[in-house]
Each structure stands twice: as C-alpha cells, then as structure tokens.
Amino acid sequence: MRISRRNIVKGALAWPAPSATGLLMTQAAAAQWPSPLAEGEQESHGLSTFGELALPENFKHYAYVNPQAPKGGRLVMNVTSTGAVNGTFETFDSFNTFVLRGDGAAGMDSIYDTLMTGQGDEPASMYGLAAQKVRWSADRLTYRFLMRPQARFHDGKRLSAHDAAFSFNLLKAKGHPLYKVILREFVKAKAEGDDVLRVDFAPNRSRDIHLTIAGMPILPRHYWQDRDFEAPTLERPLGSGPYRIGKFEQGRFVEYERAPDYWGRDLPVNVGVNNFAIVRYEYFRDRQIAFEAFKSGALNYREEYTARIWATAYKFPAILQGKVKREELSVGHAAPIQGWYFNTRRKQFKDARVREALALAFDYEWTNRNIMYSAYWRTHSFFQNTQMQAQGAPGSDELRLMETWRGKIPAEVFSTPWSPPVSNGTGSDRALLRRASELLQAARCRRDGPVLKLPDATPFEIEFLQNDTVFNPHTMPFQNNLRKLGIASRIRLVDAAQYKRRTDSFDFDMLVSARGGLLTPGDGLRSHYSSQTAKLNGSHNLAGIADPVIDEVLEIIAKAQTRSELDTAVRVLDRLLRAGRYWIPMWHNSVVRVAYWDVFSRPQRAPQLMSGAPSTWWWDEAKAQKLAASR
Predict the structure, then answer these.
(1) In terms of CB atoms within 10 Å, which end of the chain has fewer, N or C?
(2) Cβ contacts of residue 147 below 8 Å, gap of 6+?
(3) Distance between CA atoms of residues 362 and 445, nearest Å
(4) Domain-by-domain residue ranges, the chain?
(5) For residues 564 and 556, is the Cβ–Cβ distance under 8 A?
(6) How far apart are CA 443 and CA 354, in angstroms?
(7) Is residue 588 within 8 Å of residue 406, measured between CB atoms?
(8) How many helices (H) and strands (E) does the chain have?
(9) What is the pLDDT of residues 298-341, one digit of tens each?
C-alpha cells in the first residue's frame, strides 16, 4: 500500500512488457504521439526538479523491495497521519478528501492513480504511472502526457486523458482552498484525444509546478460530473489505484482491500509493494486506549511518538515473550518540524518581542530530562538537519540576496540566526525569565500586581488549543513560568470536529503543529508562509505570516533552477522566519520508534527517504501461524 511521506512523491511505476493486445493498444497510442520532436522540445519517461533521473526507462523494480514478496494478510494500525488535505487524527466523516468541508478518511491516496509518481530513494523525481511518457516545449509552458492505454478505473472503464483534464480543472475550481494556491500557475488541462493530455502553465511559472500536476490524483469524470464535488460524502468513491474502500464505520475504522484486478499490479514499480490484502486504520480519541488496543493484538503495527511510553510501558508480556518486536529505525528524511505556533492575528502576539519573551519561558532542558527521558534534540531551524538550515553568519551568496532588502528586514538576519537559549535546566531559569520580563516591558506590557497587562490595559491571557492531552505534561510547566511573568493561561481541550473548525478559521491563540521535513522545498512553502494564505481558511499558515519580503523569497525558491540557488534562498528564508519568532520550536528525533506483532517480514534495507510505515513489508504466514499457536 502507498503509505506516503510528505517530503517525497508517491511510489513510481514503470511500463511492463505488454501482451499481444496491449502491444496493439500501445502502438495505436504511439501513433497519436506528436512526432518528431519540435525544436527545443524534450521527451522523457520521467520528470525531476533539476532534470536528472536516477532510474532508466527500463528499470525492473525499486532497489529496496523484495520482488518475491507474497501478497495477503492484514496491516492494522491506528491513525497518525491522514495524507489528506482536510483530515484529522481522531475521526473521519467523509471520503471526499479534496475539499474544505468534512474530515477526510486516512489512506485515501491508495485508491487513486496519478500521472507520475516517485520513489523512496530519490527526492523530487517522478516516473510514469497513468502516463507512460511526457513531452514538454522549449519554454516549459506546455506539457503533453501520453496516457497508458491499459489504465482502468475499478469499474472497468478506461482512465483517459479526459479524466485527467477533468480532475485538474475541477480541483483548481472547486477543491480545497489550498489547491487554488498550489495550482495558481496551472492554466488549464485539455485532452487531445483519449491518449494525450495537454497541460498549459502560466509565464514565469515556478520550478516544480509540473511535478505538482504530475502527482495530482486522477478522478473518474463519469463518476463525479453529476455529483456535488464540494460536499462531504460517505459514499465509496470510484478510484483506479491498488486498493479500494472495504468495510468502514464512520469515525471508528476504515479498511482498504487490495484490488485483485488492479490494472497496474504487474508494473515494475509495483513489484514488492502493495503487499497486504487488507490495510485497516483504527481511530482513537485517546492515545492510551490506542496503546492498549495494540497490546491486546487488535492493532499489529504501531509508531510510538511519546518518549515516556517508549521508555516505561513496553514491558508487557508479549514483549517479554518475543511475540511483539520493537525497533528504532533510522530516519533518512529531513527532521520533522514541530512547535507551539503563535497566532499573530491576535493582538497579544503582534509584537515579535512578546513572542520571544514567551519562548524564553519554556525550559526545554528541564522538559527533555524530566518528561522525555533525554530522548530528543532541540529544534532550531525550519529546515532542521538539512543543508538548507541557516547556521552562523550568512555566506556571501546569502548576503548578495539579502542586500536587496537591507533596511526592510531585521538587522539580526545579517548575523547568526536566532535560536532559543539553553536554560540552566532547573525548570525556572531566573536569568531567562528576567530577560523575558524586560522584553515584555519593551513591548509596552505592564505589571499590575500579579497580572501582566497588554498596551491597551487588558490582561495578557493565552489559550492553548489542543485536541489531545499528550502535550499536557510539557505545557503545564511552561504555564507555571508564564504565571511568574503575570500571564494567565489555560489548556482548551476540544473534540476533533471543533479542533478542525477552529484551526481552519484561525480561532486560537497558540497550538502545537508538526509537519514533515523537506529535502527539496518548492511551491508548497507558500501554503505555510505566504501572505496569500495568511487569511485563507484551511491553509497551513497557522501563524498568520504575512511579510512581503518573505513572499519574494518564496518566489525565488519556487523558481530556483539549480540546487545551489535553492539552498541559498531557503537558508535566507530560514533566517527570516527565525527572526520573526513565529513559533516556540520543540524537539526532534533521529529515529522512528516502531513496535509490531511478529507476523511481518521485510526487505534487508528500507528506502533512503522513508522510515516507519511498512510500505514494503509483507505478511509472513509462517510467523503468523506460529504466533497464533502460541496464543
């Protein structure tokens, strides 16, 4: 099954040896393909950010799979990430994951195919899936994709260029508001017959917009054209991918059944993946209950995110008897970015000095030692543990870029980037709290007895919005230090539906948010940091960042044509974001902690850019029978 990570593109597919019928269809399609190449035009079996592909056109399978992996068995896990624009971790009420309304179900990406898709050893590259080849004009404003003639939806009808054109135009017109941001340089898609899809981009297009389109889901036109696309639904939608929706119970679980007649099942890139007959996602409102379900065997795979649980709770009988295995898998991708985000739309967080003062009140060193068993490292950068992380004084390449904005950006951007200070580890570092108080006074906040008041004389209060109690142990000591500064705070625990409504409309003071690390940032940064998304309901710009200089840097990143240009621009962005004090950075780990019942086997190595979720594992029937006998 495709269990995708946000920092890579979904699994790649290549062209199999055709049958006699398939060969005739391929020849018929090829006859419609424009030939010969026009001046400056190029053709390829794949696309990449900077033009280089690691895999040849005739590759047989990924290097990290077992080509003989058997099919069958069940993978059962609790929801930790939906892979959908509009999903939560706690519930679902819709299988339409493409619109703002509703909570989308986890795993829905497995029922849809895309034009092209990537692999876990190679960032920012894509290979043919529903499209076997692509041709682009010299100005890179027109792309034509040659569709595979054997591609089919689950009802047996052909997946054609007409479906792809319908999908991309529909997502831009009626999809989640973020699609309008992501696809703003996509002009239109048009089918030139069943076999050839033409896609046009705007002048001055971004570097990766063609990859964005190539990775978009293809929806069946005959299914959606008479339905309300903007409405949530629990009707099982029609797809074309390796899985289709099986049993489900709203808000509790959803199963995906491996499609026995999946048109792409024999493609080289599908060799060794999509191995489970059933993939089931279980929803829990309480993490402890989810853990108990795993201990009982109701779940057979789990990723553990809580250091305290990992250190103290994995001593139950099945662990001691060897029936449950636990491992720490190395992380090959960029570190995830997690922190408390300030909603700068709120009056108490308008001043960056106030935001810095609050960051000084969080004692990470005490928290890591006393609550997290010293299992983590402090996060400093928005691009932590990558070559794009800003460190020390800016280099000459960064300075040349930043000189454009001298006088418009904080002077500190031209020196060592801001990082939260190291405390004395007592839990209440007096020196840091004194510095925090000075910053608050400089921002015209004043003490009135035990109460700190804002410049307009209203009490300084903070609500931490949460839909889970997991961060309570970390937040409560932080609250104690805020109280010493005269700031009243409370934790507001809400259900998943209310949490989504409030975050979509930016109705919060502070909250914890995490996203996957990025190895090749591009267009997607706009949804997190651009002025355009600061007021766009449902966007990922939780902090409300609206800085014209940051907007300019985002455009430079989106259009960077070399790795060096990209790295330089992202380091500048990192300096600007850190100077803005938009968050209180939390922590990260260099491993993924996994535990699983001993019913699986897996290849000797994992994909270089993925870890955790077992997309290349398989059900081992001999182990399963042995475990059943022992129980």
Answers:
(1) C
(2) 29, 130, 131, 132, 159, 160, 161, 164, 194, 195, 196, 197
(3) 19
(4) 337-586
(5) no
(6) 7
(7) no
(8) 19, 26
(9) 999 999 999 999 999 999 999 999 999 999 988 777 888 999 99
